[in-house]
Write a structure and sequence with these properties.
The chain is 30% helix and 24% strand. The protein is built from eleven helices and 16 strands. Strands 11-10-9-8-12-6-13-16-15 form a nine-stranded mixed β-sheet, sandwiched between helices. Helix 8 (205-211) links the parallel strand 8 and strand 9 (226-230). The longest helix has 17 residues, at 3-19. The radius of gyration is 23 Å and the shape is elongated. The protein starts with a helix and ends in a 10-residue tail after the last strand. Bound molecules: NADP nicotinamide-adenine-dinucleotide phosphate. Residues 164-166, 172-173, 177, 179, 182, 203-207, 210-211, 230-233, 235, 287-288, 290, 308-313, 316, 339 line the site of NADP nicotinamide-adenine-dinucleotide phosphate.
Length: 383
Amino acid sequence: MAESDFDTLMMARALRLAAKGLGVVSPNPMVGAVVVKAGRIIGEGYHRRYGDPHAEAEALAAANAAFPEFVAGATLYCNLEPCCYRSPEKHQPPCVELIIRNKLARVVVANRDPNPRVNGDGFRMLADAGIRVEEGLLAERGETLNEVFFHCQRAKSPFVHLKVAQSLDGRVATSTGDSKWISDERARREVHRLRACYDAVLVGSSTVRADDPELSVRLCRGRDPVRVVLSSRLDIDLASKLLRGENAGKLIAFRADDGDEKILSRERALVALGTRVFAIPRSTDGGLDLSAALDWLYALSLRSVLVEGGPRVFTSFVKAGLFQKVSIFTAPLLIGEGKSSLGDLGLRVLSSACRLRRVRYTRIGDQMLMSGYKEESHVYGSR
Ligand SMILES: NC(=O)c1ccc[n+]([C@@H]2O[C@H](COP(=O)([O-])OP(=O)(O)OC[C@H]3O[C@@H](n4cnc5c(N)ncnc54)[C@H](OP(=O)(O)O)[C@@H]3O)[C@@H](O)[C@H]2O)c1
């Protein structure tokens, strides 16, 4: 096998290992590492959980335990540039020092770490120690795997993913508000898988009132995300499933900062149950200011948000341009008059519409799942 084919295979393996950290390493990136000597894997590892050893350290520990005499002169494949700094809030020592101490000959990396405290310095330190460094192998796959991490490093705001379940004619509920269930169990299991990968799931107050959702992970394995509700007046029924038992402690509610005594008393009742409540300004259209909500979520170390509706909330996020990805589950169902998945975006000409890029189509049972990304610069009303 040509060296470049072998390199690609090893990097693909590092990426697969990295993906095992999905949903459990945030706010850290997912990283996998493979140590190879003379065409054979002598150690591998991945970042298993936030605060745990980094992938490079795991892989080198495995190699040193199994084949200590082969580690010097080996090649390390790793999807992210090794870290090179110490800081009080960082749990692990710099991987670059470990690589140099282990006398590796070559380091192959998919993506540069955009963190300003790394951003090429890891490569420079390795090269200064005489280690051959190669960057960019399977970079696009690496960028997609860690899309949340890369977005957060650039934007300092959570990665926002809008998830819609709609009928063939673009409805999310009948005119009476009935929406259970538009998609079948297979699609719902896929949604639960998505939830398990996200730090937070967000809905509007009307969805809580209409559907009384749990927004938890039940149809697959995985940890429950933090639930977030936008409710200017905090009119959330205290018997809602989102407030049952331990759920209340996993709920964040945003209210308007112009609250009266009635709202303050609702806040006290929610806080007594363990819910965190934040007062934020309203935007010019009267809804809560989504940028302010996202700033709070970012400050709380919540790096990714799955927005699950309803239509008014979807519309606000789209109109404000505050989303990165959209996933639409379309079921073979005709509803006719009913609630559209999106409201008025103020669009005049088609050329100003947001056209998704890097679109993927997946069939899930009877449903078609279409996912794509927003053009970063696109904002409704700007053209
Ligand atoms: N099929 C699906 O994918 C899906 C998903 C979810 C819901 N649904 C259905 O959708 C319906 C509810 O949707 P909906 O559009 O009526 O309401 P919604 O989007 O769930 O909630 C809208 C409410 O959220 C609050 N809010 C605060 N800030 C906001 C902002 N910036 N933008 C938008 N809303 C903000 C407002 O209430 P306050 O005045 O209380 O702040 C607003 O009235 C239900 O029938 C539900 O079954 C379908």
